[in-house]
Design goal:
Number of domains: 2
CATH class of the largest domain: Alpha Beta
Number of strands: 21
Shape: globular
CATH topology of the largest domain: TIM Barrel
Number of helices: 11
Low-confidence stretches: 373-383
Helix content: 25-40%
CATH architecture of the largest domain: Alpha-Beta Barrel
Radius of gyration: 21 Å
Strand order of the largest sheet: 3-16-15-10-9-8-7-4
């Protein structure tokens, strides 16, 4: 049995020590959680959704507990982009030293541009995550993320003013998530993050009124996990850019399942609100879960090179084998393999053909089906 488990992942050239990221809106700017544990155990942090102007948020009550989840209508409460840069980021640098994912929201194309251009200049921020679930105030309040054209327009405008990888965070409240993801990819997105919350509502039967002042809000928690896995699988299969999976993740097993669906990294959201140690616990349990499943992820050693290339050729074809072979000649090697019980399960490469390019990568469909998972072959590319 392989004793060393490499849990590191790469998102468009940004290396994370593990794939676990607290999701925006459930972790603030890390201040409160730093009192519980050393935040440097996290792969990255996606900080609270930030807009151009400070926002107090929606009227209260704005939280409603549900079976297997909760509904929130906080309303993007945040201090505004200038305050985040002036105060929150400097403090975050003192308690966290790994990559920062900046979650940016906007109510117009101009607001997205302005906020992303400003945050792009911050050294500690390595990935920009653009939330397109916000209503467009210039288009009757319709969310930017509900149509491929509007999501693509946000992507295009943000990419024009930034230099860092841009991930578009998609809403599940749409008819065709794949069409929207593809539109974002075609517009220049470096990656996709999904899913955001589902639209939900609760009614207080005693008062005969909605529990939440805003009537409806975002439903999150473990109840939405199967929806998230399905959408991650569909988008990862259809697109050639990395996917960050989120929605209902509560355990190390959930992280592995999400990655088997095609995610490169995984965000943990509502679980942080129930248990402040959730992310730390999941990270600590990850290698044990991999061992239980008999899965090891590691770099190959010299004598294995020919056998691995032969396996890739037989499983995925000569084109992928030829590209993967290039990874063996990089120093250090830039290919990782996944094994189950000593048998090859999958592989992933970076810098195989172009610097910063993630791919080819693939998982043996026959092996996944044999262990009860519906799998696929795909190639991811990041810039």
């Amino acid at each position: 049995m392989v004793k060393h488990y490499d849990t590191s992942v790469e998102l468009c050239g940004v290396k994370l020590t593990n794939p676990v990221i607290p999701a925006s809106g459930t972790f603030g700017f890390g201040r409160e959680f730093a009192e519980y544990y050393d935040l440097d155990c996290l792969g990255a942090i996606s900080f609270k959704g930030t807009t151009r102007d400070a926002r107090f948020g929606n009227p209260t009550p704005r939280i409603a507990e549900c079976t297997s989840g909760l509904i929130n209508s906080v309303g993007l409460q945040n201090p505004g982009i200038d305050q985040v840069i002036a105060e929150e980021l400097p403090h975050l640098r003192t308690i966290f030293h790994n990559p920062i994912v900046a979650n940016i929201s906007g109510f117009s194309l101009e607001e997205y541009e302005e906020c992303c251009a400003k945050i792009d200049k911050e050294e500690q921020v390595e990935i920009i995550e653009v939330n397109v679930s916000c209503p467009n105030v210039h288009n009757g309040g319709m969310s930017f993320g509900t149509q491929p054209e509007s999501a693509a327009e946000v992507t295009c405008r943000v990419k024009a003013v930034t230099t860092k990888p841009v991930f578009i965070k998609l809403s599940p409240n749409v008819t065709d998530i794949v069409a929207i993801a593809r539109a974002c990819e075609d517009a220049g997105a470096d990656g996709i993050c999904l899913i955001n919350t589902l639209l939900g509502m609760r009614i207080d039967t005693m008062r005969r009124k909605p529990v939440i002042a805003n009537k409806m809000g975002g439903f999150s928690g473990d109840a939405i996990f199967p929806v998230a896995v399905r959408m991650v699988y569909q988008v990862a299969k259809a697109c050639s850019i990395p996917v960050i999976g989120c929605g209902g993740v509560e355990s190390a097993s959930d992280v592995i399942e999400m990655m088997m669906a095609g995610a490169t990294a995984v965000q943990v959201g509502a679980a942080n609100l129930k248990d402040p140690y959730a992310c730390k616990r999941i990270i600590e349990e990850l290698t044990a879960e991999m061992e239980k499943l008999g899965i090891a992820i590691r770099k190959p050693i010299g004598p294995e090179n020919y056998g691995i290339i032969h396996w890739i050729n037989e499983t995925f074809g000569p084109h992928w084998a030829g590209e993967a072979e290039n990874s063996f000649f990089n120093s250090p090697k830039t290919i990782w393999i996944a094994e189950r019980g000593g048998k090859m399960l999958g592989f992933a490469c970076i810098d195989a053909t172009v610097k910063g390019f993630f791919g080819p990568t693939g998982v043996d469909e026959k092996e996944q089906r044999a262990h009860g998972k519906d799998g696929g072959q795909r190639q991811n590319a990041g810039s």
